[in-house]
TrEMBL record, chains A, B:
<feature type="domain" description="Endonuclease NucS C-terminal">
    <location>
        <begin position="128"/>
        <end position="233"/>
    </location>
</feature>
<keyword id="KW-0540">Nuclease</keyword>
<feature type="domain" description="Endonuclease NucS N-terminal PH-like">
    <location>
        <begin position="32"/>
        <end position="107"/>
    </location>
</feature>
<protein>
    <recommendedName>
        <fullName>Endonuclease NucS</fullName>
        <ecNumber>3.1.-.-</ecNumber>
    </recommendedName>
</protein>
<dbReference type="InterPro" id="IPR049173">
    <property type="entry name" value="NucS_N_sf"/>
</dbReference>
<keyword id="KW-0378">Hydrolase</keyword>
<dbReference type="Pfam" id="PF01939">
    <property type="entry name" value="NucS_C"/>
</dbReference>
<dbReference type="GO" id="GO:0000014">
    <property type="term" value="F:single-stranded DNA endodeoxyribonuclease activity"/>
</dbReference>
<dbReference type="GO" id="GO:0005737">
    <property type="term" value="C:cytoplasm"/>
</dbReference>
<dbReference type="InterPro" id="IPR048301">
    <property type="entry name" value="NucS_C"/>
</dbReference>
<comment type="similarity">
    <text>Belongs to the NucS endonuclease family.</text>
</comment>
<keyword id="KW-0255">Endonuclease</keyword>
<dbReference type="GO" id="GO:0003677">
    <property type="term" value="F:DNA binding"/>
</dbReference>
<dbReference type="InterPro" id="IPR011856">
    <property type="entry name" value="tRNA_endonuc-like_dom_sf"/>
</dbReference>
<dbReference type="Pfam" id="PF21003">
    <property type="entry name" value="NucS_N"/>
</dbReference>
<dbReference type="InterPro" id="IPR002793">
    <property type="entry name" value="Endonuclease_NucS"/>
</dbReference>
<comment type="function">
    <text>Cleaves both 3' and 5' ssDNA extremities of branched DNA structures.</text>
</comment>
Amino acid sequence: MLEEHLVSPTPDALTTFLQRQIHSGCLVQVAGEMEVQYMGRAMSMAEAGQYLVLLKGDGSLQVHGPKGVKPMNWQPKTDSVQVTVERGYCVLRAHRRKPDELVTITMLLPTLAQAIRLQEAAFELSGSEAQMQETLARHPELIEPGLTVLNRELVTAAGGIDLYARDREGRFVVVELKRGRATQDAVSQLARYVDAAQRLTGGVVRGILAAPEMTGPARLELERRVLEFVQVTALPALEQQAVQPGLFD
Amino acid sequence: MLEEHLVSPTPDALTTFLQRQIHSGCLVQVAGEMEVQYMGRAMSMAEAGQYLVLLKGDGSLQVHGPKGVKPMNWQPKTDSVQVTVERGYCVLRAHRRKPDELVTITMLLPTLAQAIRLQEAAFELSGSEAQMQETLARHPELIEPGLTVLNRELVTAAGGIDLYARDREGRFVVVELKRGRATQDAVSQLARYVDAAQRLTGGVVRGILAAPEMTGPARLELERRVLEFVQVTALPALEQQAVQPGLFD
DNA sequence: GCGTGTATATCGTGG
DNA sequence: CCACGATGTACACGC
């Protein structure tokens, strides 16, 4: 799995290594003192420091500092990655055409370069909004008795309505789901959809925000707009699962 | 800078290594076959695959697969990281209290473990919205002649207004900035602020969306709400800088 | 700790 | 390609 491993390579050796490994499909790493420059949607300059570069097989690039999940610099996709020797340093340029972006890394003092082969396996996530939507579409009574779901992800000019339904009295209902605490933004979003639906149908349309909880200001905004709130949870049985023995032994 | 380096360590050796290095302030890596489980805001399970774990000195954790900038699993902050041997495997548990989250990694076949010392240096970013705001606050004429800025980041019940100003005719103006293409959401946001300002002042308040461009639907929504658009760019001189010689030689 | 908003957001989806 | 919205968003900032 560790395909290649260089310690304190010379600029030439690092350049050759990178040129060889970049298209190998491996995850390629370089650690050491470097300077990183970015130009594109914004611009940034990181002066000489010790960083870790990850270049993945799909062409994505990230430069990590000592802190945080988020890389200091990155490039989600690259159209070309060039490695050259310039002024005695190995220089890596990762370019992306749309949007036009360039990350330039000057390897001042590389101390480590290696290639690792990774392999992804099955990955399952529960508790996403998509899953909530599926559950509620199958069991709309969890929102309100007598509710009938007409559409999921109904596309309108205002955007996609999570659930479009009819209540037991025949009124149309727009449901906006949030998997976490709902904010004012969620209320604005719901209001926009309700407006759009009202313009389309001509009648009165109810708007329901379905979320585990909401912020105080969101509640005020919701009441001001005469919209409704229904409590739903993304992970109904989480509490039970959390007390399963063996987790913190 | 490369503080320690183990190849295909035994579970015991890996456990000892991790327990020692976790509080060293180094960036700690483990690569190899592993199983990753997450429980907290949601739940996830990654079956046995080849992944790369990064544990940084600030307690953040990320598990990378072969593709993408975003880690497959992560933990932005941890309150405790425990490493034990269980059923013959080295098991790492990264726990966070608020929100209550747990990432569990079972190292099935570690092929590489190492500790690297990183050091951050000066980092400068241009073209952020904050910088746009500063520029426009100093040169409000770029938005409109005769504009006087009253507040930056004015906090209201509806949220923070980027720029609050008065036009040459004395009307209040709410300016919402976007550093990229503005969407319907941005228009909703602006509308919410304008509503709030109108309720406060009692008079008519203008709303200006200042961005480099906007989407088609956003434009329609803007017009429907009788709001205005002004073109501003986050990086005014980018084109000139992009054709500087030496970039693609 | 909450609420809010930005981000070079990234990423997937659907038209 | 564009538009839109979710994300276990992360992260910084103000109260």
